[in-house]
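Troubleshooting log. The previous structure file for this entry was overwritten by mistake, so regenerating from the original sequence record. Sequence copied from the archived sheet and checked twice against the printout by T.R.
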Amino acid sequence: MTDWARVRADGFAVPTDRPLTDLVAELSGLLRSPDPVLRDVQAYSVLATWIRRGDLSTDQLRSLGDEMVTRLADPEVQARTFAPLILRAIVSAGVFEPTWVPPFERWYVAEEDLRGYDAKLGWLHAVAHGADLLGTLGLHSAVEPVQMLRLGIGRLLTPTPYVLRDMEDDRLGYALAATLTRSDLAETDATEWLDPAIRVLSNPPAEGITPEVTNTIRTLRATYLLIDHGLRLPEATTLTRIPHRDQVKTKLADVVRIVTPYYL
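Regenerated output below.
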């Protein structure tokens, strides 16, 4: 196996003793590893750097994207949750296939293992990693922004035993706010994606505040703050303001007020 620690120490220089295709295949395989050092510290950091730096061709990026999409159905949780990070890097590098979106949507809502960190597997972060891709797709001109907004609220409202931790709610809140910066987003679409939250929160389960309710409220609070203040998009040097800002803030306040009437 390639000495990936050495590659990192050498400034992520691409080794010249093997074909790049073989190196990428090895890194892709390591992204399934249960060893967090091999998977996260080495494989992900190297592959993401090469993608961002432009070391892979368009065809190589497209092939890797196809592989990551199939990885979303992998039986190993760490394999599933690291696939969106690579897809995000690929899309950010300018390569996008519409066929990648539906499998991502299906996985993001259906993923049941929402652990942020595991003592043996390391960082898993399904919600946060998925949010990073959701926000990137939400800013992509070939993706309907309301599609990503509905996906985000669908993820939040899906019943789960996990209360999000390690800033995952903030990352999804940022992804939603980033999507809301799209200038082609109609005013109705900018607010009506929240209607499912109003319906669910207005009919609370007998057991009271469930993890998904907590996750939803925390995430929407973060979204509200970003919309109110403005947010810094990737590569931007100034804050971006959200179209329909006042209408979205009002709708968000209506949602949060259902559970925490003392808050607003």
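Residues 109 and 155 are 5 Å apart (CA to CA). Archived copy saved in two places this time.
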